[in-house]
């Protein structure tokens, strides 16, 4: 099956370039040029991944991201002309999984898309536990007692990476490689913001986490401090 990609960007030249690149790489792209129509286009296209411009006419990319995330866990990669800290963090906090700063190389973007779409086809039976959470790895399910906890695919991957090696401390750089697929130095804010998002869903008290614990000066680990 060819993956469906929804591109939300108001730059026609960039959209044309992305169309050529994505089709040549075997994807099925669709396009929308403004934020107001992005949500209806998302519902109609049912994409496997969304490439979302941060600066859009009408509804902002941040608001579009929040709206999509409220409906689905589909991977979202933000396209931004700004590397400004506030805009990047706002994008991640609104639900984006990753971001690429314009101008970008087509191969870089394709690599980011493939990394977010890469899911193991047939995973062996594996059940993990951290605290009072149970993680069904091939089923991509997290439960507390009998209550299911909804995580995005990336949040799930982050939790599994930590849970597979309880008490081992992971640096942010190692998590970027294992979870995001980065093979080079990258923005560790990706990890920080996603840990915050994950804690908001799985911790009984996110201000005093017991499942994903910070090891100051090093990184994060699963289990008690």
Please provide a brief summary of the model:
40% of the residues lie in helices and 22% in strands. It has 225 residues and is an alpha/beta fold.
Main beta sheet, described? Answer: 5 strands, parallel
Report the radius of gyration as a whole number of Å: 18 Å
Count of alpha/pi helices: 8
Distance between the termini: 44 Å
Strand arrangement in the largest pleated sheet = 2-1-3-4-5
- Note the beta-strand portion: 15-25%
Structural class determined from secondary elements: alpha/beta
Shape, principal axes of CA atoms? globular
Keywords:
225 residues, single chain, 40% helix, 4-stranded antiparallel sheet
Q: What can you tell me about this protein's structure?
A:
The structure is a single chain. With 225 residues, the chain is of the alpha/beta class. 40% of the residues lie in helices and 22% in strands. It has eight helices and twelve strands. The strands form three sheets. Strands 2-1-3-4-5 form a five-stranded parallel sheet, sandwiched between helices. A four-stranded antiparallel sheet has the order 6-7-8-9, with helices on one face. The protein is globular, with a radius of gyration of 18 Å. The mean pLDDT is 90.
